[in-house]
Write a structure and sequence with these properties.
This protein is an alpha+beta fold. The protein is built from five helices and four strands.
Length: about 160
């Protein structure tokens, strides 16, 4: 027979277990919905399905200047490229740095692509190897090593134009 004390303890453990399982389920769902892509995982094409796009880049504060230097170099490569989409990509691509600190004191960089070139591949690794074949590996390692928390891609559709 269970004592009253044993039943209370059993119910409390069951309740705590339910809360833990619920938290894991909610965390898994949110992690899937708001998943960030790591810079290393840029093996598949990176295209935008909307006319305007954003990419949030979470960079270690200590590596912010490295990230910025690779972005500068990438811009030069895009503008000088003979590939048909690259100059158009450069024209619509702006890189912003947030004044506020990001998660874990990271630096948030926002790529604002307006217009995003339909069907164009925005993988930094691919563009660096195309523009700077001799330097691409070192540039990509610098770029990839700068990240603190990966990237989040956002496709934007205009709803209201004031």
């Amino acid at each position: 027979m269970f004592s009253l004390q044993g039943q209370k303890s059993w119910r409390r453990n069951l309740w705590v277990g339910g809360v833990v399982i619920g938290a894991l389920v909610v965390g898994g769902v949110l992690g899937t919905v708001f998943a960030t892509r790591t810079a290393e995982a840029q093996t598949a094409e990176l295209t935008f399905s909307s006319p305007t796009g954003m990419m949030l880049n979470y960079v270690n504060a200590a590596n912010a200047s490295d990230f910025e230097s690779v972005m500068q170099k990438l811009g030069e490569g895009l503008q000088a490229s003979q590939a048909p989409d690259r100059p158009a990509q450069a024209e619509g691509w702006k890189v912003y740095r947030a004044k506020e600190a990001g998660p874990n004191n990271s630096v948030l960089y926002v790529w604002f692509l307006d217009p995003a070139v339909a069907g164009a591949d925005y993988r930094v690794s691919y563009m660096l190897s195309e523009a700077f074949p001799d330097e691409a590996q070192a540039l990509y390692e610098t770029y990839n090593g700068a990240f603190a928390g990966g990237q989040s891609q956002i496709n934007l559709d205009l709803i209201v134009d004031f």
